[in-house]
Amino acid sequence: MFQVAFTALVTPFKNGAVDYKALDELVEWQIAQGIDGIVSAGTTGESATLTHEEHNEVNRRVLLAAKGRVLVIAGTGSNSTAEAIAMTRAAQNAGADAALLVTPYYNKPSQEGLFRHYKAISEQVSLPILAYNVPSRTGVNLLPETVARLAGLPNLVGIKEASGGVEQAKKIRELCPRLVVLSGDDALTLDMMAVGAKGVISVTGNIVPADIKKMVALALKGKMDEARKMQEKLMPLHNAMFLETNPQPAKIALKLLGRGNAEFRLPLWGISPENEEKLRAALKAYGLLS
Q1: pTM score, two decimals?
Q2: Annotated active-site positions, please?
């Protein structure tokens, strides 16, 4: 079910508030482009600066806009286990296909604490859940041995792996053949799929969802040479999406392409003029800007 390409969708703002009309339009465009699924209110969706009410409403509105035409994984992670449980329950009640839960940030829990965090959530919901490991953001690495323990939870179905290394994804696959591993790093997607990952939750998918889907579909069919050629073409875009902290380049790219206003909430604000020029150059080289 989750062996596909997802876009980690940005959250549009207007005059400081969530722009739900623009959010609906982004969902519709993603579906028209053929993406398999959408992740709402994740890191790329600026979840850290959404209120709990906004967080739940973004997830609900994406589900309403999608109308069951694509998979929707609701971001429901928090550094508070109780808050994560509450938001995951809300996503379940809204009809999400699954929930994506980032490891608790700032607290820096031990591996035992991480296990107990996910176990507590699993025991309170029936919704399929995926762990999300991104040490560069959270300060803690969910180790493969801990993931193996989590694999015993009946509704933990997978992990978004963004530790920056292929070896960790490989070890998770070896220890946890039941779990779906999804790449959380666009640049490493094919390398991770070569060792058993089954798709990607993509930032670049905000810009070229059809191409991300095609590349993943080729890899899933075993057509790795063709997929590799697409990845080589995509690499400048992948790199451009991380010229500065995600989702700043992605939102500015969408603005340049006529699909947003690039409004952020502090402490995110935008990117330097030098990096915006690099971003423009990458979009032009790909054929997205004249």
Answers
A1: 0.96
A2: 132, 160
